[in-house]
Amino acid sequence: MNVIEVQNLTKDYGSGRGVFDVSFGVGKGEVFGFLGPNGAGKSTTIRHLMGFSSPDSGQTLIFGKPTFEHYHEILNRVGYIPGEIALPAGLTGWEFIRMMQDLQKIHNAERLSQMLEMFELSDAVLKGDTKRMSLGVKRKLAVVTAFMGNPEVLILDEPTSGLDPVMQNKFIEFIHEEKRLGKTILLSSHIFSEIDSTCDRIAIIKDGKIVSEFVADDLKHASKKFYQIDFRTIKDKNSFVKGAHTIPSLEVLKDDKLNLFVSVNDEDINATIAMLSDYNVSKFSNRRESLEDYFMKFYKEDKDFGGALA
Q1: For a tag on the chain, would you pick the N or C end, based on fewer CB atoms within 10 A?
Q2: 164-203, pLDDT tens digit by residue?
Q3: Percent of the chain beyond pLDDT 70?
Q4: Residue 229's closest CA among 195, 206, 252?
Q5: CA distance linking residue 186 with residue 300, whole number of Å
Q6: Bridge partners, residue 3, by sequence
Q7: How many C-beta neighbours within 10 Å does residue 145 have?
């Protein structure tokens, strides 16, 4: 049984905004990546998973319980980092931590100390007013409070937004460690490297709908490969393109002056190389399809990615 379950979730805010018939599940010990640009529906889905909003139709469950009706029963078993950090005014960092500990009903001093040291939050910083904290400090405080109770499930919405590169890398290393401990993790992000380096499975969301869901390793070890071919003359390049249709799986993806970017299945690579031997080629190199390449297939017609390439 999945620990996290989204079943045919629909929340229509009008004008094409919201999420529509979204379904996916996350098993115990799995890291599931939820990838899409800002406004695609990631945060809406997560708000429903956290029980903050009631769906128009469908449901969201954690530990088999509908989250809107049972949010109070799962609160202390789920660590949550919101996409936008809005800390209560009039509290110091320490007061915010104590408040969250009381809400979670978990006071794990050893774990808290480890988290504060890992994310470099000093006593002096935590004595300051949350309103005057920088975005980076607020984000680190959100990370610490999400993890300090050692929860079984982690729901992370753009968790490294606002962190510097050193802290981003430290956070990714920490996610790997949490995964080794058997935690169930939903990681929503628009940062390809973050998703690519941590996730077992990935879903891509566009305009509130899941457009692809796949095992991360399948993309890395796909039978279709990608190659850049540099020709010495335009005549050679054009002649090769004209004959490319004789190789069933060969597809020209980009044609730029003397260069081609092509895809071809493994079973046709020898035939492709044999054909290239008849032309003046200066370079033939393999490039694995990246997560960004795959993602852009779904967004290539859009001009504004809302930060999707960050």
Answers
A1: N
A2: 999 999 999 999 999 999 999 999 998 898 999 999 999 9
A3: 97
A4: 252
A5: 26
A6: none
A7: 23
Beta strands in 97-172 (DSSP E): 153-157
Confidence of residue 114 (pLDDT cuts 50, 70, 90): very high
CA geometry: angle at 282 spanning 277 and 284, to 5°?
70
How far is Cα of residue 310 from the mean position of the Cα atoms in its chain?
Answer: 12
CB atoms within 10 A of CB 233: 12
Q: Is 88 exposed, middle or buried (0-12, 13-18, 19+ CB in 10 A)?
A: exposed
Helices (H), 27-92: 42-49, 67-74
Q: Is the dihedral of CA 247, 251, 254, 255 positive or negative?
A: positive
β-bridge pairing 184-189 and 153-157? parallel
Q: Is the pLDDT of residue 38 over 90?
A: no
Cβ-in-10-Å burial (0-12, 13-18, 19+) of 149 comes to buried
pLDDT attached to residue 307: 42
Q: Which two tokens stand for residue 256?
A: 């730029």
Long-range contacts of 209-212 (CB under 8 A, 24+ apart): 209/19, 209/20, 209/21, 209/22, 209/41, 210/22, 210/23, 210/24, 211/298, 212/294, 212/298
Instruction: Compute the distance between CA of residue 50 and CA of residue 158 in angstroms, rounded to an integer.
Output: 15
- Minimum mean pLDDT among 19-28, 209-218, 262-271, 285-294: which range? 285-294
Q: Is 271 in a helix, a strand, or coil?
A: helix
pLDDT tier for residue 310 given thresholds of 50, 70 and 90:
very low
